[in-house]
Amino acid sequence: MGVFASTDDPGSTGHEQVVFCQDKQSGLKAIIGIYSTALGPALGGTRFYPYASEDDALADVLDLSRGMAYKNALAGLDLGGGKAVIWGDPEQIKSEALLRAYGRFVESLAGRYYTACDVGTYVADMDVIARETRYVTGRSVEHGGAGDSSILTAWGVFQGMRAAAEHVWGSPSLAGKRVGVAGLGKVGKYLTGHLLDDGAEVVATDVNPKALEWVRATHPQVALVDDAAALVASDIDVYAPCALGGALDDDTVPALRAKVVAGAANNQLAHPGIEKLLADRGILYAPDYVVNAGGVIQVADEIEGFNFDRAKLRATRIYDTTREILGLADDEGVPPAVAADRLAERRMAEVGRLRTIHLR
Ligand SMILES: NC(=O)c1ccc[n+]([C@@H]2O[C@H](COP(=O)([O-])OP(=O)(O)OC[C@H]3O[C@@H](n4cnc5c(N)ncnc54)[C@H](O)[C@@H]3O)[C@@H](O)[C@H]2O)c1
Predict the structure, then answer these.
(1) What positions does the domain Glutamate/phenylalanine/leucine/valine/L-tryptophan dehydrogenase C-terminal occupy (predicted)?
(2) Per DSSP, what are the bridge partners of residue 144?
């Protein structure tokens, strides 16, 4: 995969900057990918993961940083898209020295990239990284941070689901609808609460017995099924993938009985073309990166000095953005995932262009 975009190389990615960082003593090997700063500094989390190879780490950071540019654009943030990966097993090599070495590389970008938590990194790690750089969000509440981002992620998913419900059934209310939640983790738990409050019936599954115990104790009215395949095949109106990526694939989509898909998981479409398969089956897919932006909205708010109410208001607007995308998809005769990409690209081009107006 080439990083430099060129007309001769259709596989090239068009990233602005990709930085390889190494500190041999602490074992740090990191790659920071900045896809676009058209709307502002690039924001995206740091994934700490034992990739099989450097190529895998690079492919992931290129993919994830591009995704963040689109997500941040549609979240209405004045932030571009970036992401970082630390290559290695966090259980084995994570240390104060490694995180601080990483923080110094983030600082060296002088604010072109803000980091945050992702798979394998936590709020406490951000506090360590912050000892070396100002450009870090997702910090602990004691340090003025936003804390657990899954609270507004779940709220935003609920808002996106309401917009999708309105598009299909004429009312945003989920009352009386049967919603299948796959994954009762940090986001799935809060989402289940919002759905029950709205009068929905919830049927759920999780591979972790603790999550099942939690739901039995907290919401005994939630029906449980064995696995995601059983959930997909059950009589649900809405499917909310809230576990891992790739939930919508060539086996799942033909079996799906829901009319709406709206969930928190990143990268739900297993491969390009699945969005068309969903549309052909008359299933409305609310694009994952649109509806799950509440978390990035929450951590981005920290840059201004965290205010929960303001961040929640911004996450509530995911309802309006989802409506706009679904309307655009109908008008342009394309699946919602394509309409979302177009809207994000439009904002990056239209607002990004304003920087060409000379100020001084
Ligand atoms: N937390 C956030 O703020 C945030 C923001 C944006 C996107 N997301 C995405 O949302 C998804 C959920 O995030 P989270 O923070 O709740 O993660 P989490 O790890 O807390 O929860 C995931 C849950 O899914 C369950 N699970 C895993 N595999 C499963 C399977 N095959 N079938 C059923 N359940 C399964 C796990 O046991 C766990 O309870 C992830 O894809 C994440 O990338 C999260």
Answers:
(1) 147-356
(2) none
Instruction: Please choose from 70, 126, 186 the residue to mutate so as to test ligand 1's pocket, defined by most ligand atoms within 8 A of CB.
Output: 186
HSE toward the beta carbon, residue 44, CA cutoff 13 A: 33
Q: How does pLDDT run across 162-215, given as a tens digit for each residue?
A: 999 999 999 999 999 999 999 999 999 999 999 999 999 999 999 999 999 999
Helix, strand or coil for residue 16?
A: coil
* Ligand 1 neighbourhood includes 298 CB (under 6 angstroms): no
Closest residue to atom 25 of ligand 1, CA basis: 183
Burial 52-86 (b: 16+ CB within 10 A, else e): eeeeebbebbbbbbbbbbbbbbbbbbebbbbbbbb
pLDDT of residue 330: 96
Q: Return the structure tokens found at 177.
A: 């609808």
Q: What is the tens place of the pLDDT at every residue in 211-265?
A: 999 999 999 999 999 999 999 999 999 999 999 889 999 999 999 999 999 999 9
User: How would you class 10 by CB atoms within 10 Å of its CB: exposed for 0-12, middle for 13-18, buried for 19 or more?
Assistant: exposed
- Tell me whether strands 28-36 and 17-23 are parallel, antiparallel or unpaired: antiparallel
Whether this model's pTM surpasses 0.85: yes
Strands 28-36 and 113-114: unpaired
> How far apart are the C-alpha atoms of 180 and 233, rounded to whole Å?
10
Does 338 contact ligand 1 (Cβ within 6 A)?
no
